[in-house]
Specification:
Blueprint (H helix, E strand, L loop, with lengths): L1 E4 L7 H12 L8 H10 L8 E7 L2 E9 L12 E7 L8 H15 L4 E6 L3 H6 L3 E8 L2 E9 L3
Antiparallel strand pairs: 1-2, 2-3, 3-4, 5-7, 6-7
Length: 154
C-alpha cells in the first residue's frame, strides 16, 4: 500500500467523491454528488492546507484522509482539521485508516501545526488508539458527534 496526494491521481476524484457522498451526505443536506466532486477537487493540495491523500494498492483506491482549515462550521475557532478519513469496508481492519491518519498528522506537523482537530460520529475508539483526546461531545447537524484533538510533537 502507498499513500499519495490525490492531486497526482485525479482519476480517483469521482470515485472518492461518491464514497464520501454515500458515507456522509446525511451531514450535508442539499449537497449533490457534483458539489462533492467540486469540493474534493478544490481541496487537492500538496503539503498544504487543504490537501487530500489516498491509500492505493495495485491500482485500487482503498481510502482517503484530508487536512482542511475548517470542518465544523459551528467551531470556526478550531483549525486545522483532519477530515474525510474513509476506508472502503472490504479494506478495513488492516491498518489503512491508521496509516492515513498518521500521514495527515505528519503533513500538519511539517506545516507547523501544533494542534489538530477532528469530529466523528462513529470511530472515536480508532482515534483514541492513535493518541487523540476527546475535546467535547455535542450535536452537529442533527447527529451526536465527538470532537477530538491531538497535540503534535514540537
Amino acid at each position: 500500500m502507498q499513500i499519495e496526494y490525490l492531486v497526482d491521481y485525479p482519476e480517483y476524484i469521482s470515485e472518492l467523491a461518491r464514497l464520501h457522498f454515500d458515507e456522509w451526505s446525511y451531514l450535508y443536506p442539499g449537497e449533490s454528488l457534483e458539489g462533492r466532486i467540486a469540493r474534493l477537487r478544490s481541496s487537492c493540495g500538496r503539503n498544504a492546507i487543504p490537501s487530500v491523500v489516498v491509500a492505493l494498492e495495485d491500482g485500487e483506491l482503498l481510502g482517503s484522509a484530508m487536512l482542511v482549515a475548517h470542518d465544523m462550521d459551528s467551531r470556526p475557532q478550531l483549525t486545522p482539521w483532519l477530515a474525510g478519513v474513509f476506508v472502503k469496508p472490504q479494506c478495513r481492519g488492516k491498518g489503512t485508516g491508521s496509516a492515513l491518519v498518521r500521514r495527515i498528522e505528519a503533513e500538519a506537523h511539517s506545516l507547523g501545526v501544533s494542534t489538530l482537530y477532528l469530529y466523528t460520529p462513529h470511530t472515536e475508539s480508532l482515534y483514541e488508539r492513535l493518541g487523540w483526546s476527546v475535546t467535547e461531545r455535542c450535536e452537529y447537524r442533527n447527529t451526536n458527534v465527538v470532537v477530538m484533538s491531538k497535540e503534535l510533537a514540537a
